[in-house]
Amino acid sequence: MDLSFFLHSFPHSIFMEMLQNAPFIVIGLLILLGFIKSFVSVNQGTLAVVTVFGKYRRVMHPGLNFKLPFIEAIYKKISIQNRSVELEFQAITIDQANVYFKAMLLFSVLDQKDETIQNVAFKFVDEKNLMQGLIRTVEGSIRSFVATRKQSEVLSLRRDIVEYVKEQIDKTLENWGYHLQDLQLNDITFDEVIMKSMSQVVASNNLKAAAENEGQALLITKTKAAEAEGNAIKIAANAEREAAQMRGQGVALFREEVAKGMSVAAREMQEANLDASMIMFSMWTEAIKHFSENSKGNVIFLDGSPDAMQKSMNQMMGLNKLLDDKNMGGKK
């Protein structure tokens, strides 16, 4: 079926009427299209930059927004959420040691003011140039800080590096419309040779500390042992002294009781008109019996002559008389 057949078969009156109403149909379609394009939906966490013929006009916030059809246009949609980027770069210390960094950068749009949003929208050509400028700025700040420090100091200066970078680039980022939320230095490494030497230093320090601790422990052990031995000697000496004192007191009490018994026996024998020397003789024979029963030896040497017996009796009688005189003196 060709077009000529269609035109011949279509009623002429209807065709002419459509041609006459064509401008109105076109205008109606344009109005409908403009009405549809007048409403713009902006997602949460996003702002839309509106321009009029290429010039900044205003900012649309999240939700349903109205714009003038065919006049206002959405130039760019900007995320106001936090964004992160990972960095890997190298720096050189003042003593010419290579330092390798792995870092995470967290940043976001500074605020939602019109001036800030204009800076975010128009400062850079595109997102790629923004990220390149941001990364190079952070890397440059860290390199300038590390270049003034020695290799041995870098590991202990993480917080100082972060504070230095924030201080250096905060103003720059504000001019771009952004704010540095955080900078995390996740990993700091050196060349393999330096890492090995650092491990050796740590190992030697650990061995030194272990030796010092062992020496201190040995010193404390010996000191405590000496103190314990000294205390034990003191305790043993005190115990021996007390034991000797108690033994002396026991012997003294024994002798006192023996003397009292002898005195009483002597008086009783005197009252009975008996010779007191019998008591001495009886004690002497009991002593001889005790020696023979309890001694570990096999022989007891005694002078059994009459003179020796008389001498022994005289000595015991003298001892008895001395005890009696002492007791009489005590009663007076």
Average predicted confidence as pLDDT: 78
CATH topology of the largest domain: Tetrahydropterin Synthase, Chain A
Q: Strand order, main sheet: write it out.
A: 3-2-5
Regarding quaternary structure, what we see is single chain
Derived structural class = alpha+beta
Number of helices: 9
Radius of gyration, in Å, reads 60 Å
Query: Sheet with the most strands?
Result: 3 strands, antiparallel
Keywords:
single chain, 332 residues, alpha+beta, Tetrahydropterin Synthase, Chain A, three-stranded antiparallel β-sheet, 9 helices, 19% strand, rod-shaped
How are the SSEs placed, and which strands pair?
Blueprint: H1 3-9, H2 12-37, E1 39-42, E2 46-52, E3 55-60, E4 63-66, E5 72-79, E6 83-92, E7 98-109, H3 114-122, H4 127-146, H5 151-154, H6 158-176, E8 178-190, H7 192-271, H8 277-294, H9 306-331
Antiparallel strand pairs: 1-4, 2-3, 2-5, 6-7, 7-8
Helix pairs in contact: 4-6
Q: What would you say this structure looks like, in words?
A:
Strand 2 and strand 3 form a beta hairpin. The protein contains nine helices and eight strands. The model has no long low-confidence stretch (mean pLDDT 78). The chain has 332 residues and is an alpha+beta fold. Strands 3-2-5 form a three-stranded antiparallel β-sheet, covered by helices on one side. A three-stranded antiparallel β-sheet has the order 6-7-8. It has a two-stranded antiparallel sheet with strand order 1-4. It is rod-shaped.
